[in-house]
Amino acid sequence: MEAMLQPVADFFGPSWTAIWTLLKIVAIIAPLMICVAYLTLAERKVIGYMQVRIGPNRVGPKGLLQPIADGMKLLFKEIIVPSGASKGLFILGPILAIAPSLAAWAVVPFDDGLVLADVNAGLLFLLAITSMEVYGVIVAGWASNSKYPFLGSMRAAAQMVSYEVSMGFALICVLLISASLNLTDIVMSQNEGRFADMGLGVLSWNWIPLFPMFVVYVISGIAETNRAPFDVVEGEAEVVAGHMVEYSGMTFALFFLAEYANMILVSILTSILFLGGWLSPVGFLPDGFHWLAVKTAFILLLFLWARATFPRFRYDHIMRLGWKVFIPVTLVWLFVVTVWMMSPLSIWS
Amino acid sequence: MLENYFPVLMFMLVGLGFGLAPVILGRLLAPYRPDSEKNSPYECGFEAFEDARMKFDVRYYLIAILFILFDLEIAFLFPWATVFQEFIAAGEIAWFVFGSVMVFLAILVIGYIVEWKNGALDWE
Predict the structure, then answer these.
(1) Which is nearest to A341 in space by CA: B85, B82, B102?
(2) Which residue, A226, A280, B39, B73, has fewest beta-carbon neighbours within 10 Å?
(3) Which residues constitute the domain of residue B79?
């Protein structure tokens, strides 16, 4: 591949590195956007079938063109900027929401060696960039200068930072047993141990020794992306649509894209950190990207399933779960893992 | 070493561009006919009757401060967690490293218990 492109590289000269990187970035964002579009359709279909309906089925065969129709409609809708809003910040809000949810994909590995930036601080970068997501919501809520967006963004900010703490402790535990911040190393470290040698890789992945962390991470991921049953941010009975009330057209579409891109990001990270990434569950089947896709799709199905199953949490219950249940659980398991590593029974070395 | 981070920087810029492009496109393609009723803040059909940037509950500040404490704690644990296995492999010093981090965590837990007892985590 590199040799084939050598003449092109010579033609562009020193700017070739930038162009080649840009092409790789497009090769990540384009499939991601298709996934986002079809995740919205999948969500409506899955929830439809769970409620004994058939979901959207009018646009295109079996409703398959529905997301494209939705996108087109939003593109041709007026972008309304309220007269009381801070204009610059109002436009900046959705951009700040989508930018980190895309930038995080720079360090996500899709297969052994198939990663855009193979940096040695990948996990730290992810922790930092996912923390940036809260700014889009706060800026949008503040800039709208309207009551519902303001209240919605206050709630969102408090909820997102609360669950970030327990997610952070879960990451520490993963870090302890894989001893690397590089996501490729984290996946490969799950391929070691007695069960992996026996060809039962599924039992050597992080989700078994870190089971409480795995559960906390998935639930915190749902809360962090403001999805049902933690979607008080846009609880329509209380604050209409939260920080998105005043947004229309493409500015609204950006919030929507960011939310679904974040869902896919949290799912793929759960697969990488706890479910062995692209590793095959059994020895006789080959590893590869398809396993990562299957695991990510499964976690995404859990997101949709939770939305179809549970009623919305009350806000004080959400805060209690985050601060009084998840933090003690993560602290205790951090202690258990540390002692386990020090003891002769340690399975990591 | 640092050139590994060049794609990350570029991805951030592309992300910002990806956010900006649809906004510009929407402004160019979609109709733009502002009027004072349409542009007034949404309040269920009523005229908005005070500034929206009002006083809000002090507990939001409290949560933010607690978050900073815990997040700093996590940031401090990151380097320790990365090298802990090497210390275990090295032997003697492992218990010292273990002990110092446990003291560090114990201080956090004491603070956490105090917060809990004083009702800082209640949201009633």
Answers:
(1) B85
(2) B39
(3) 55-124
